[in-house]
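Aim 2 progress update. The chain analyzed this quarter is reproduced below.
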Amino acid sequence: MTVKKIFLCLISLVYFIPAIQARIEMPDIFTDNMVLQQQTEAPVWGKATPGKEVRITTSWNNQTYKTTAALDGRWSVKVKTPQAGGPYQISISDGKEITLKNILIGEVWICSGQSNMEMPLAGWGKINNYEKEIAEANYPQIRLLHIEKATSTQPQENIKAMSGGWQVCSPASIPEFSSVAYFFGRNLNQNLKVPVGLINTSWGGTLAESWTSGEALENMPYFRDAVLEMKRVPEAELQAVYQKKFDAWNAKVTEADGGLKYNWKDTGLNDNDWKQMNLPAMWEERGLNNFDGIVWFRKSIDIPAAWAGKNLELHVGMVDDNDITYFNGLEIGRTEGYNVGRVYKIPSKMVKAGKAVICVRAVDTGGGGGIYGEAKDMYLTLQSGAKDNLQSLSGDWKYKIAVDFSQHERAPQSQSGNPNRPSVLFNAMLNPLVPYAIQGAIWYQGESNESRPAQYRELLPLLIRDWRNQWNRDFPFYFVQLTDYRNTSFNWPELREAQMMTLHLENTGMAVSIDIGDPVDIHPKNKQDIGLRLALAARANTYGEKIIYSGPIYESYKLEENKIRIYFKHNQGLKAKGSPELKGFEIAGSDHQFHPANAIIQGGEIVVSNPQVKYPVAVRYAWANSPVCNLYNAGDLPASPFRTDDWRE
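Predicted structure tokens:
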């Protein structure tokens, strides 16, 4: 063979190899077990060999759709879906065929927000009756897509799905999935008798602006500069600047840490002057209100003689945010990040019979702090896994504050990978879902925006409109109003008010949850009723059921001499639940001083008064972080907190 022929053969191979290697590529939202929205033209898209014809065949009608991959390989078609049913298949080919199997046609909902939406049935969530709920979660007509956490300064085309894509709902697949989403979907499936697809894209502790596109946020002056800066400055440069600032800050607070300086980890330390704290708990619940900083915890235990010289396993529980843990003065592990269980190995050479000291250096840079979770998750045991042979570590620990961050410059926040930068979660965890055909969205968020409630009046409607604009459809959007939570530093009443005001936006609904929270836990365990109330809103407004789907919602008021009459929407069968008298009403005159009020039900209205207020001008109901209130309607649904005034004090 001549050199020329060999050269021509090599050239042919260069062009031929990509052709034989190329195949259809589908985004992670298109996998086996997925649910497509019924009775619509559902977009299906992916990549193929540029210029090749792509054929998409749907088994429910044996129809084949044809398109041509663009120069960059992208292709997209819309397939006509029938009424709910299945299972079906979709075959996609550009010469090499792939087949997506076990597809259902039904109702698809996006489920998003922060930790109370993310909260799983098991894992760090452990909702009410979670073991029973998991064991009974055998619903093959419900499918789950759990989006992995990610951030991006630019809109992305693909998400990464946990477990490789859509999963059939079962006791094996449900434990780490959103409990609110699951109970919402389960109720729809049971009542509508159709398949339900749930897309869980949520992240604890995140802000609403993170879930809103940069394009939309540029309309709000508060966010405009941050959005423009993110477009202008490369991610790597931002991270380098942050790391330099953080290292300098960390060096200062570490130097100020008396625990490190004076070896508070040592077994021989005299800790008689240390205070006691019952754990597990967030330290805000144990007297360290609004405290951010470094706290050292110590606990003395007795090691049985039978354990001496054996490997042990220490279960600390969860720490918010970071920890270094010591056993008898030696470090055995460290972890960064809250909502992560701490499990550390103690090697046999460190284990001697008699007194031992466990010490935890806990660092909290913002929000709640402490060693928290469930008491049964704090224990010391043999590494062999004999759970019947363990020592509980819950109960009293000694503690001492080492560094109060309020006395130092505020900790710098990472910009690279920080989920609370404007638009970064929209870009990475929502934009790739567009334009997948959906019926609507449910939303549980607001805790992280509580310091800016007036702004939330604009931000939440903007987010809803933004999402609808992305999908080019005014789909239903149902959200959860914040529950009760007894933290005096929070401003939840005005945030709840901002959420209620969002009902002015068309095709929205709100699940009131003021009665099913936990005053001492920002993550209440009753997620069943949250999911139910969201489902009631969807069944009534989206699916047309004639049911009571909302508790009483304040509408207007009228002054009547020394009384104020309150009018409500959803006022069927108003009642005082659990008491002969209504609780939670207050009334004020022109002096702006509120007094407990007498509240009387008259038909679908409430008449409020107090003899001390001769000329009343304003009424408030359940206007507190954790109020005592009991106004319900015939649907056994609670009234939303409200006020008739707009006073700042």
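Confidence is low (pLDDT under 50) at residues 3-22. The first helix runs from residue 3 to 21. These observations will guide the mutagenesis experiments scheduled for the next reporting period.
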